[in-house]
Amino acid sequence: AQLAGCQSAWNGPTEALPAAIAACTRCPLHRNATQAVPGEGPRDAALMIVGEQPGDMEDLGGRPFIGPAGQMFDTIAARAGLQREAAYLTNAVKHFKFAPRGKQRLHQRPNGSEIEHCRWWLDAEIAQVKPKLVVAMGATAAQSLTGNGAAILSRRGQIEESRSGVPVLITLHPSYLLRLTDAAAQERAKAQFQADLAQAVAIT
Ligand code: URA
């Protein structure tokens, strides 16, 4: 394990981390977002789950995975025997990136620089929680954790080594499931996501 990578440059006290994330101006995304969304869950969780970035509802509510993607996650996690409250849930990027379109705010994928700037915080969360396993949901989380942003479909279900040395199980992002319009394809993807989460439960 590459322990050196596990030591985040941020080394303030545990309880100060959410406030430090809230005050972050390391990249331009803080300018338009309502607030930063730090991770939530037990500080000693064996399992950490990492998404991409807060969505519209998370940006307004200040908590991760409380919108449609979060509902999809909760549904499939329950089927996999995973209790959301037992895991530490966070995102690779802590501010919502969007493009205004009329009254709507359209989700935009964070770029490599934004992911790298925010990795400072994800590394700090990993250093605090010291999970046994991290689940990367989608390409952004996988890129942040492993340095490899290659397509997820051929990687999912497999365990890779993160830059911090903690094993990372790669899986689909719940928003991807929501975007699938073909019912059979969506059922297949849900089954894969459920199997990956069940594998994470079995490991932890
Ligand atoms: N999508 C994510 O990746 N994270 C959230 O918190 C919400 C939606």
Automatic annotation (TrEMBL):
Domain Uracil-DNA glycosylase-like: 38-198
Entry similarity comment: Belongs to the uracil-DNA glycosylase (UDG) superfamily. Type 4 (UDGa) family.
Protein name: Type-4 uracil-DNA glycosylase
Organism: Thioclava indica
Range covered out of full length: 269 to 472 of 490
